Structures are given as structure tokens and as C-alpha cells.
Amino acid sequence: QDNGFEQFIINYCNEKLQQIFILMTLKEEQEEYVREGIQWTPVEFFDNSIICNLIENSKCGILAMLDEECLRPGAVNEDTFLTKLNQLFATHKHYESKETQNARHVMDASLPPQCFRIHHYAGKVTYNVTGFIEKNNDLLFRDLSQAMWAAQHTLLRSLFPEGDPQRVSLKLPPTAGFQFKASVATLMKNLYSKNPNYIRCIKPNETKTAMLFTPELVLAQIRYLGLMENVRVRR
């Protein structure tokens, strides 16, 4: 019910995995039909790259704006971060907040003031910006790292290499968001080099009961996993 920085990062990864699924199973499959001259009716599908770009664009994505706020001198808080997002994405159809809703004359009591909402591929998710800056900074004070190194313990030294006096750096450590984005990019590169097979798991009901299927729940998952389009393309 209350989504913070961690859920935002997880959903960003899910969005990227969905993107690779779309590209490999819908886009590339249909391009192969074109190359082979097969007669078929093109299947329309939603390309979620617009959502991935909203989050990860290196110049004006949400993660880039968060990093910018973390580096800004002076009093920094989530209000300035949210204001910046509202200005940047005032007209973006996959982003909304109380402010952008007011500008569009939308009355929606379900979206609190300290939040923004992203229209993800799998549905709308509301994120509370409280704690975003602190969690993204992920700072461990330099003197603590040096104390761990000074303990002369092999394991501690391997866990805190930045505590080595020979390696003291005045550069700010990379943010949590930056590190995660780099990890996701490495994962995507790895997946693109493979020939993946997909197994999609469907949760049949909310009560973990045997032999019980809740059609609405199953249908919702089939829709947001992109399986309808996938079956049409394969057929």
C-alpha cells in the first residue's frame, strides 16, 4: 500500500525485464515474418520504452533528477525533488502527481500530496517520496570505513576496501540508484546475448487454495504480462 524507494527500484527492474520480453518475443518475431515474406496481420502491442525512458534517461529521467538533488548544496529535501519532477513531466502521460492533476483539473483523492504516480506497463503505482534522497545517497561515513580497515581483520578489510588510507578518495561514492541502474544495464546486456525461453507463472487465486481459479485475477495477470499479444504473434 505504501511504496517507497525500494519498490520504485524493483518496479524499474520489472519494467526493463518486460521491455526485453516485448522486444524479443513480439517485435523481433514479427520482423522475422517480414524478412521471410510470410503473410500475416501485424499484432499491435504497447512498447514500454517510454516508461523505461521516464525512469532511466541520463539527462532528465527520475533517477537522474534524484541524483541531481542528492548532489545539490544547501537544504535538500523531497519537496524540491517532487517539484522538479512535476515541472519536467507536467505533460507526460505516464506520470502524475497532485500538482499535475490540479493543472489538468483532475479530482483524485487517492493520490496524496507527497507522492507521484507512474502508469507502469502492469498498472498504476503510487510512490511516496519520503526517504528517497536519504536512501539514494546510501552514504557510509568515511571514518567508519577507515575504522573497519584499521581493525586489521581480513574479512573486514575485504568488506571495506575504501577504508584503506592509500585509496582515500574525495569523490562522492555512487548513489544507490546509479549502482542499480548500472547493474540493470549489465543484466540487460547479458540477456540480449542469450536466446531466452520464458516460463510465466500465473497466481490462480489469492488464498493459495488447490483447484480454485479466480478468472478476474488470472485475466489481469495475462493482460499485464503481455501474454495476449504473445499468443497472437505465436499463433
Describe the protein in words.
With 235 residues, this protein is mainly alpha-helical. The chain has three domains: 156 residues, Methane Monooxygenase Hydroxylase, Chain G, domain 1 (Up-down Bundle); 33 residues, no CATH class; 36 residues, no CATH class. Helix content is 52%, strand content 6%. The protein is built from eleven helices and three strands; from the N terminus they run H-H-H-H-E-H-E-E-H-H-H-H-H-H. Strands 1-2-3 form a three-stranded antiparallel beta sheet. Helix 1 runs antiparallel to helix 2, helix 1 packs parallel to helix 9 and helix 1 runs parallel beside helix 11. The protein starts with a helix and ends with a helix. The mean pLDDT is 89.
SSE topology:
Blueprint: H1 5-35, H2 49-56, H3 62-71, H4 78-88, E1 95-97, H5 98-103, E2 115-120, E3 123-128, H6 132-137, H7 142-150, H8 154-159, H9 176-192, H10 215-224, H11 227-234
Protein name: Unconventional myosin-Ia
Family: Belongs to the TRAFAC class myosin-kinesin ATPase superfamily. Myosin family.
Region (Actin-binding): 184-206
CATH architecture of the largest domain: Up-down Bundle
Tally the helices: what do you get?
A: 11
User: What structural class do helix, strand and pairing data support?
Assistant: mainly alpha
Rg: 22 Å
**E-strand count:** 3
How is the quaternary structure best described?
single chain
Order of helices and strands: HHHHEHEEHHHHHH
Q: Tally the structural domains.
A: 3
Largest beta-sheet characterization: 3 strands, antiparallel
What top-tier CATH class of the largest domain fits best? Mainly Alpha
Shape: globular
How far the N terminus sits from the C terminus, by CA atoms, comes to 38 Å
- Percent of residues in helices comes to 40-55%
CATH topology of the largest domain: Methane Monooxygenase Hydroxylase, Chain G, domain 1
Strand order of the largest sheet: 1-2-3
Low-confidence residue ranges:
none
Mean pLDDT: 89
Strand content: 5-15%
